[in-house]
Amino acid sequence: MLVIGAALAGVGLLLGYRAARWRKDPSACPYGQRLWVELPRPFLGRTRLRRILAPQPGQRVLEIGPGTGYYALHAARWVAPNGTLDILDVQQEMLDHTMRRAGGLGLTNIAPRRADARTLPYPDDTFDVAYLVATLGEIADQERALKEIRRVLKPDGRLVIGEGFPDPHMVRFETLRARADSAGLAPENRIGGAPDYFASFRAP
Ligand SMILES: C[S@@+](CC[C@H](N)C(=O)[O-])C[C@H]1O[C@@H](n2cnc3c(N)ncnc32)[C@H](O)[C@@H]1O
Q1: How many domains are contained in the chain?
Q2: Neighbours of 62 (CB within 10 A)
Q3: Which structural domain, as residue segments, surrounds residue 82?
């Protein structure tokens, strides 16, 4: 019994140490650990995302950090047939994985791009809506990324951010609101509470 207790305490300490290091030194969730992004999300589900994103057919939407496509494969359908979902990720494996799945589903309106969120390879005023889920906290300079997103949003375009526990990189809503404010993004709406939320902002 004592041995099991000590082992559990050891695992807890190790996880706590890793979480603290991740928070201090943000980095992309490695492709090899993609299992974490494939788990169901009771409070950060696609229905909630769709409600706050309010996507319209024909829009051009950007997802930064699609991972293996948990949201992207649905968002692409929400803007079909004439709309496009651009997906941008630092890891080519994540983009390839999402595109393989999209191909299997017959989706043809997803445009992948490998790049860093801090330097977006799109012209000003390109997107109607952008969204990031469980991604902002992995970006080393969040304010710079938010400013870049604001730049590529059309006037009056919208940004939706989803964040949730137990992501070690989770960005608390108050922190996000302050960073969004510095980037010139005005708060608009929020679904969920402190542990799991989607929040939307507008580029005035
Ligand atoms: C934890 S995963 C979340 C994936 C997906 N949004 C989801 O919720 O299932 C974070 C994703 O953001 C990407 N990412 C991390 N830092 C990035 C950066 N600076 N620029 C672009 N993508 C980044 C990672 O490669 C990964 O695909």
Answers
A1: 1
A2: 26
A3: 28-202
